[in-house]
């Protein structure tokens, strides 16, 4: 009897811990998305240039490393906002280009934004409701993202539009998978740090939006 009570107690404690991580993750994710949007808007208003490839990579991976290093301290929150704010600054000039240079750019941006939101809420909601365990996707996602990242660099360095388009399509699928995987990790206790979970989901949303933005622009003959 005591063993049953212990099991029930442990199960209840685990459920509370999972719910806390999930709640904190979505709260922090909402805050970082708003902050990143504010930084994107600021870079657009000030007409700031997009950082070069090297600066973007250094800022991305440098801040990502610091966020992960200090994820168990209050400094982790500082670096989360620094990281997401930097990405907001990076995407601001891209959005400006679509809005100010391309015909129907506002429709392309809104379509990409709405689709990103629908995909995120749809996939994360599906995992939360069904409780499916997507742990098996981890290795495949890592390999796919690494491959797509390298191909994306090649496309950017050598200016290969067709490859860029293909990479965007692949990245959109990979980020959808990453949303499902990370949500599954949270609800099944595989991810217990809400800062790490937030960063993964933020990057998924960010890359998904960028990929859809490029795809919609091309499909719309822009």
The poorly predicted ranges are: 6-10
SSE succession: HHHHHHH
Alpha-beta content class: mainly alpha
The tally of helices reads 7
**Average pLDDT rating:** 90
What overall form do the CA principal axes indicate?
Answer: globular
Largest sheet: none
Helix content: over 70%
Please provide the count of β strands: 0
> How much of the residues is beta strand, in percent?
under 5%
Computed CA radius of gyration, to the nearest angstrom: 19 Å
Number of domains: 1
Kindly, what is the distance between the CA atoms of the first and last residues, rounded to a whole number of angstroms? 68 Å
Secondary structure topology:
Layout: H1 2-45, H2 53-69, H3 74-100, H4 105-130, H5 138-157, H6 161-187, H7 194-219
Helix pairs in contact: 1-3, 1-7, 2-3, 3-4, 3-7, 4-6, 4-7, 5-6, 6-7
């Amino acid at each position: 009897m005591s063993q049953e009570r212990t099991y029930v107690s442990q199960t209840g404690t685990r459920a509370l811990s999972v719910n806390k991580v999930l709640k904190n993750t979505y709260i922090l994710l909402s805050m970082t998305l708003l902050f990143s949007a504010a930084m994107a808007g600021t870079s657009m208003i000030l007409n700031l240039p997009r950082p070069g490839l090297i600066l973007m990579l250094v800022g991305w991976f440098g801040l990502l490393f610091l966020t992960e290093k200090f994820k168990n301290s209050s400094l982790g929150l500082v670096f989360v906002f620094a990281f997401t704010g930097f990405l907001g600054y990076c995407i601001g000039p891209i959005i400006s280009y679509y809005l100010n240079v391309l015909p129907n750019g506002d429709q392309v941006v809104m379509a990409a934004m709405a689709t990103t939101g629908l995909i995120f809420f749809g996939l994360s909601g599906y995992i939360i409701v069904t409780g499916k365990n997507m742990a098996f996707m981890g290795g495949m996602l890592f390999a796919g993202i690494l491959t797509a990242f390298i191909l994306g660099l090649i496309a950017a360095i050598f200016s290969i539009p067709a490859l860029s388009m293909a990479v965007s399509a692949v990245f959109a699928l990979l980020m959808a998978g990453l949303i499902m995987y990370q949500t599954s990790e949270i609800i099944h206790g595989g991810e217990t740090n809400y800062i790490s979970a937030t960063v993964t989901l933020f990057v998924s949303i960010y890359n998904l939006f960028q990929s859809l933005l490029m795809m919609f622009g091309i499909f719309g003959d822009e």
